[in-house]
Amino acid sequence: MSKRYAVILAAGQGTRMKSSLYKVLHPVCGKPMVQHVIDQLSRLDLTNLITVVGHGAEKVKSHVGDKSLFALQEEQLGTAHAVMQAESLLAHEKGTTIVVCGDTPLITAETIESLLKHHEATNAMATILTAHAEDPTGYGRIIRNEQGSVEKIVEHKDATEQERLVQEINTGTYCFDNEKLFETLSKVSNDNVQGEYYLPDVIEILKNEGQIISAYQTSDFAETLGVNDRFALSQAEETMKKRINKQHMLNGVTIVDPSNTYISADAVIGRDTVIYPGTVIQGTVVIGENCEVGPNSEIKDCKIGNNTSIRHSVAHDSEIGHEVTIGPFAHIRPQSLIGDEVRVGNFVEIKKASFGKGSKASHLSYIGDAEVGKGVNLGCGSITVNYDGKNKFLTKIEDGAFVGCNSNLIAPVTIGEGAYVAAGSTVTDDVPGKALSIARAKQVNKENYAEKLDINKKS
Ligand code: UD1
Ligand code: CA
Fold first, then answer.
1. CA neighbor of 184 nearest in space, from 274, 80, 265, 262
2. Which residue's CA is the nearest one to ligand 1's atom 10?
3. Does the keyword Amino-acid biosynthesis apply (predicted)?
């Protein structure tokens, strides 16, 4: 097998997106389009992967990181000109170069592999990945001669009425003999409606030189969708969502209503976990086995153990253990560490706090900047008063402590092991282990005083 290289075209402005975000960074199921393409290509055995960047180069580079080399296209003069920017990195190499557009996020490694095989088997100088489109508007059309072999690709804007009737489209993915590609790029002109150097023109030039041109038609048009505007973006999202959900279901996850469940491309979910409708799972999420998530929950960048239930709740950037119960209507904010068998009940907000095994905050609490030990009970309405308007302070609640209802723990403060805070306390000083702390005004009962107030007297 000869060496294989890939060039991803990601320098375009994306005018039709009407966005301040660079086109290839628009997310599909939470991951930038260009990242989808790179991740698929990374599954192939490639010597080098080069992303051509231009608009928003720095942002694109920082997203992609070290998964690719980069070539800069300062001015966007067309797709042929874009590939040419990889010349100094690639032109001298022998082998096959795959070119993929950064705006075709649904393309799979399997299809590119089939394209490569076809290219190698036919000894072609160039092989185009084509597809049959019900509505080919906007795509380059594959023009074949009477014998059925490819003559050229005509862009929609340059096509005649007759050519526009052709439904076989250029998907924007190709294989080329590397040296021949770079030799031919310099012969491409910009004499067309858009005044651009078109990569597809390489095909006609090679054909006229008598080289073998091949085409491989995929049966799945959806996979080759090029995203030029927000409508196509929503179509890509829909297709990717179905693909991701199906994969989880085949792996043993129950998704009660797949059309109403949104799972990011990078989520890992264990067997027998059930995802209820209205659930949005974003970023890098790992969910264990036999969990219940949803309905109506949002989970982003979290790691969740086994047998845990999260209902009607939001959890971000946190770690949640095994056999935990969260919700309904709880909010787990970043940097929280919820231990095994913890219970976080309704209207509880947790921020940057750790909870040891078996602790509970069952109702109406705010626990922020806190270390909660094991077996702690935080009564209804317990609040860590962590912020004085300028700085944040830590609250420590040691193992087995019991905090009564409606208590304010004014940080920095420690509630010692096994201590008991009476309901309604405002605790400003540390409570020693095993102590009872009562920090509230003493109750005074004035006999018969209510009568003097005459509260029942009608005016
Ligand atoms: C392109 C193809 C068309 C094909 C379609 C498939 C050309 C001329 N046309 O059209 O035949 O049917 O893709 O989706 O190639 N880019 C650069 N630098 C540039 C211009 C574009 O890097 O100077 C990048 C864009 O970021 C994009 C990709 O190349 O990722 C394709 O460019 P785009 O303008 O979207 O081409 P289409 O009009 O869709
Ligand atoms: Ca496009």
1. 80
2. 139
3. no
At residue 459, the pLDDT reads 62
Q: Which residue has the tokens 């491409």?
A: 188
Mean pLDDT of the region 400-405: 98
The answer, yes or no, to whether any atom of ligand 1 lies below 6 A from the CB of 77, is yes
Quick check: 335 pLDDT over 80?
yes
Residue ranges per domain, the chain? 4-224, 348-459
Pocket lining: 299 vs ligand 1, CB cutoff 6 Å? no
Quick check: 458 pLDDT over 80? no
Mean pLDDT of 396-408: 98
Any ligand 1 atom below 6 A from CB of 276: no
Q: Is 172 in the pocket of ligand 1 (CB under 6 A)?
A: yes
pLDDT at 56 over 80: yes
Q: Residue 221's pLDDT band (boundaries 50, 70, 90)?
A: very high
Length, in residues, of the chain: 459
What φ, ψ does residue 274 adopt, rounded to 5°? -115, 130
Helices 33-42 and 109-121 cross at an angle (nearest 10°) of 50
Q: Evaluate whether 271 touches 253 at the Cβ level (below 8 Å).
A: yes
For the beta carbon of residue 445, count every other beta carbon within 10 angstroms: 5
Distance CA 129, CA 115 (A): 7
Report the separation in Å between the CA atom of 9 and the middle of ligand 1, taken as the mean of its atom positions.
8
pLDDT of 1 over the 70 cut: no
Ligand 1 centroid to residue 101 C-alpha, Å: 6
Q: Which atom of ligand 1 is nearest to the CA of 77?
A: 23
CA dihedral 305, 311, 313, 315 (to 10 degrees): 10
Q: Whose Cα sits closest to atom 29 in ligand 1?
A: 9
> Two tokens at 143?
């023009």
Q: Which ligand is nearest the CA of 13, by number?
A: 1
CATH superfamily of 348-459: Hexapeptide repeat proteins (2.160.10.10)
Annotated binding site for UDP-N-acetyl-alpha-D-glucosamine: 9-12, 23, 73, 78-79, 140, 155, 170, 228, 333, 351, 366, 377
Residue nearest atom 20 in ligand 1 by C-alpha distance: 78
Instruction: Determine the Cα–Cα distance for residues 93 and 180; give it in Å rounded to an integer.
Output: 10
Mutate to test the pocket of ligand 1, among 79, 107, 171, 231 (most ligand atoms within 8 A of CB): 79
Fold assignment, 4-224: Spore Coat Polysaccharide Biosynthesis Protein SpsA; Chain A (3.90.550)
Any catalytic annotation for residue 26?
A: no
- Could you tell me the pLDDT band of residue 128, with boundaries at 50, 70 and 90? very high
What is the C-alpha separation between 64 and 70, in angstroms, rounded?
A: 10
